[in-house]
UniProtKB/TrEMBL annotation:
Tagged with keyword DNA damage: yes
Protein name, per record: ADP-ribosylhydrolase ARH3
InterPro entries found in the cross-reference section: ADP-ribosylglycohydrolase, Ribosyl_crysJ1, Ribosyl_crysJ1_sf
Binding site for Mg(2+): T65, D66, D67, D310, D312, T313
Species, as recorded: Microctonus hyperodae
Cofactor comment: Binds 2 magnesium ions per subunit.
Superkingdom: Eukaryota
Primary subcellular site in the record, as a coarse category: nucleus
Cellular localization per UniProt: Chromosome; Cytoplasm; Mitochondrion matrix; Nucleus
Assembly mode: Monomer.
Amino acid sequence: MIPKMDLSLLSKKFRGSMLGVLTGDCLGSPYENDEPLSTASKVILQKSFDKLEGPLFKAPVMQFTDDSAMTKSVVESLIEKRGLDLDDLSKKFVKRYYQEPNRGYGQGIVTVFQKLRGNKFSDLMTPAREQFNGQGSMGNGGAMRVAPIALFCCNDYDQLVNMTKRATKLTHTHKFGVNGAILQAIAIQKSLMMDPKQALNYATFLEDLINKMDVIEENDEEFLELSESEIQPFKTQLRIIERLIEKSLTNENEPHTDEILKLLGNNVTALHSVPTAIFCFLRAQYPIAEINTENPMRRAIQYAITLGGDTDTIASMAGAIAGAYYGEDNINAQLLNHCEAAAEFKELANKLFDVVTTIK
Ligand code: F2R
Ligand code: MG
Ligand code: MG
């Protein structure tokens, strides 16, 4: 169970990923549903990040939203139950929602919570299956909360896929919602197990994700007359990421934000947000115009916000992957002081690490 990695580095990566979820969410939520940022707004965002990272800046603490709230339920349940317990997890989701309903939850998912409470948790799976006239939700709610599962399964790919599927289907049964959560989980697990001192090869990273999604999406091949992009949409999006990064590395060809958004998207569906988050993480290892920082983790989160749309969630998912790769040392301590519950998230990451490293 314990991975072959320096455990002190691994524990920093656990904290990095959990704090990446939180900081992306807190920093991104004021911009949720905005248009992509104009040059003037990017300057304001840059100044705001600079101030938050400075030692003397006093500002109200930034509140987290449903992304971190649901992630907190997942990590607490994994710690308490030392594994995935759907009954406990669904109760935690519902309890937390009714305690704090104003965390900006998705409109559809509230119906799942109401039905679960209504049936007294006697039937955990039907409420999600009934969403959107039986189609199930294709929202990114499963992906945005998956980081603790990726950390828990850090050394076991089959367990990761299986656990992510089961945990996601409590609320999201559409294949886009489920496969998006699986892709996000794989990206985090992969980043966690890599050495941040070695160069990150975006093409190799993506090739591995493409091969894995090829197998995961293969089982969805119901209609032979469909094109590959329809049968294997996540695999297709991963190929697009590769082309966009290739293009941006040849200086004169930096893709315009409009092109990125047209191809990858920035909305609340998993298909049009999980690949975008992966793109932000991979692109941000290189400098980006109008983002002035030496820190690639901050760059990933700041870049995700400039793309507009579902900023809290895309920044949070990019933060989860970047944090798993770079570890907590790349998260500014002053900035963390401005994020609600940062100390608690750090503590939860430590407890999860203890569970993972002591399970037989
Ligand atoms: N809900 C939001 N943002 C709205 C604005 C919040 C505002 N700032 C505030 O403070 O109140 N953000 C959060 O929702 C996203 C995660 O959503 P989740 O958990 O997947 O929920 P849901 O309801 O299942 O899906 C979200 C929407 O996607 C559309 N949709 C999903 N499946 C569909 C289907 N099969 N057919 C048609 N539409 C479908 C619906 O519009 C759902 O409402 C995150 O961004 C999180 O931050
Ligand atoms: Mg949110
Ligand atoms: Mg959101």
